[in-house]
Design brief:
A: Non-ribosomal Peptide Synthetase Peptidyl Carrier Protein, Chain A, globular, B: about 400 residues, alpha+beta, Butyryl-Coa Dehydrogenase, subunit A, domain 1, Butyryl-CoA Dehydrogenase, subunit A, domain 3, four-stranded antiparallel β-sheet, 11 helices
């Protein structure tokens, strides 16, 4: 069982995807940018993810690619959480 | 054990090695307004006291660019120590550029070996801190000169091994005829005439001194002090000061950004608010502004040196003088303002307390001295007049 709850992850992510309808499921392979995650919103989301899951993103991962898709972002949080445990 | 620097390219690394020591000593030096004796010993053995000594004379052969880089690093650890170091390098650069070969041969290798820490004696009561005039005259004494000199503010003066002193050239000369005199402590009677208990930059230990003694004739550095001042002393001084201040401001900014980013500490700050973002953006911009202007000034200075050496005419061009003075005024005002803003953003707990984990409160007090060390007002008056002479409007960096 992953220490990173998908439910909590999706709750935080969804609140930053301004073009995603409330009743549409998050497509993990969709471009987050097209769902409304701009670089400002990404930074706010970053802080929320760090606080929620008790992780710190290394500077090297603070690049656009990390925030490109939900799948990519989720696996990044998971791997940081695994590494810091 | 810290490895000594062997070349100018090692110098910044050697300075970085000293930062933990400087940081550890900074609070006590500030509390006691004490001279950083332990830091100076470490600087001696690091080889950094010889930064501005030419390689062939046993030094590191640094340029104004290396000087700025080293002062910046040291300033992150302790602004007072960086200023003391920067002013030492300013004096050494002056000796290396302008002293007679006989004096150079006697002192440069010892400076390179870390044996001589040099202080600057330019302040004098009654002349309002003007660098280019002096009242106390050199008096002929045998083959050399006798000097008797009161100076109200001498950074590090109580601990210096040697001094560069501005004197009136002889008893009949006007105050504008200045001689710059090298004097070793062992040649002088040195009396400390006043204490040092200021608001900030407390570790510079800038006490009053009375100096008296005799020096050989070849201890007068340079033919015309004005040429020494415009081609070496003023540029190196403003560059070293600005870099030390920038280092100090950057140091506390870096530490606060670490706290703003760290999930454990950032809850105390509203880091995602627009207000926080705009303040932080301005602080960062202020640091960058000074960094860029410093780099531009160093480049302009090195370009002139490369073309003209120490011949004074190109340094006297209004555009260059304006820039070298602007550097001092811009850095002192902008960095104090930036740290003031950072203090505001960080709040009472992190910004205002002496016991805070980041020494914002100390650096704020330290940087308050920047506009007063050779008063901005005087430089602005000079620049206001120079600006009228530059009808082509040759701006910095263009």
């Amino acid at each position: 069982m992953s220490p990173v709850s998908k439910e909590a992850f999706e709750r935080l992510l969804r609140s930053r995807l301004k073009y995603l309808d409330d009743d549409t499921e998050i497509d993990y392979d969709a471009e987050l940018r097209t769902l409304g995650l701009d670089s400002m919103a990404a930074l706010d989301l970053l802080f929320e993810l760090e606080d929620e899951f008790g992780v710190v993103f290394p500077e090297a991962l603070l690049v656009d690619e990390t925030f490109s898709t939900a799948a990519r972002l989720y696996s990044t949080v998971e791997s940081i959480a695994a590494g810091t445990r | 054990m810290i490895a000594a620097a062997r070349s100018a390219s090692d110098a910044v690394e050697a300075a970085r090695d000293l930062v933990p020591l400087l940081r550890a000593n900074a609070a006590a030096l500030d509390a006691e307004a004490a001279f950083p004796a332990e830091n100076l010993e470490a600087l001696r053995s690091s080889g950094l006291l010889g930064l501005m000594v030419p390689v062939e004379a046993g030094g590191l052969g640094g340029t104004s660019a290396t000087l700025a880089a080293v002062c910046r690093v040291l300033g992150e650890g302790c602004m007072s120590t960086a200023l003391i170091y920067g002013m030492h390098c300013q004096q050494v650069g002056v000796v290396a550029d302008h002293a007679d070969d006989s004096l150079r041969a006697r002192v440069l290798d010892r400076i390179g070996a870390g044996a001589l820490y040099v202080a600057s004696v330019t302040s004098e009561r009654g002349k309002g801190g003007h660098l280019l005039t002096a009242q106390a005259p050199l008096a002929p004494a045998g083959e050399g000169w006798r000097l008797e000199r009161d100076a109200p503010v001498v950074t590090g003066g109580a601990h210096a091994d040697a001094f560069l002193v501005t004197m009136r050239r002889d008893p009949a000369a006007p105050p504008s005829e200045v001689a710059l005199v090298w004097a070793k402590r062992s040649e002088l009677e040195v009396e400390v005439t006043s204490g040092w208990d200021p608001l900030g930059a407390r570790g510079t230990h800038s006490v009053g001194l009375r100096l008296a003694g005799e020096v050989p004739a070849d201890h007068v550095v340079g033919d015309r002090f004005h040429d020494v001042a415009v081609s070496s002393m003023i540029p190196l001084g403003h560059i070293a000061w600005a870099a030390s201040w920038l280092g100090a401001a950057t140091g506390v900014y870096r530490e606060m950004v670490g706290l703003f980013r760290d999930p454990a500490s950032r809850r105390g700050f509203d880091v995602t608010s627009d207000l926080f973002a705009t303040h932080l953006a301005r602080i960062r911009m202020q640091l960058s502004t000074v960094s860029a202007f410093l780099a531009s000034t160093v480049a302009a200075y090195e370009q002139i040196r490369g073309l003209a050496g120490t011949s004074p005419a190109p340094y006297e061009e209004p555009a260059f003088q304006l820039q070298i003075n602007d550097l001092k005024v811009l850095a002192s005002e902008t960095l104090f303002s930036g740290v003031d803003r950072l203090l505001e953003l960080s709040g009472l707990r992190y910004g205002y307390m002496r016991t805070a984990p980041v020494p914002l409160e100390r650096v704020f007090r330290d940087l308050r001295s920047a506009s007063l060390m050779y008063a901005n007002e005087r430089l602005l008056i000079a620049n206001g007049k120079l600006a009228l002479l530059d009808r082509d409007v040759t701006l910095a960096g263009s």
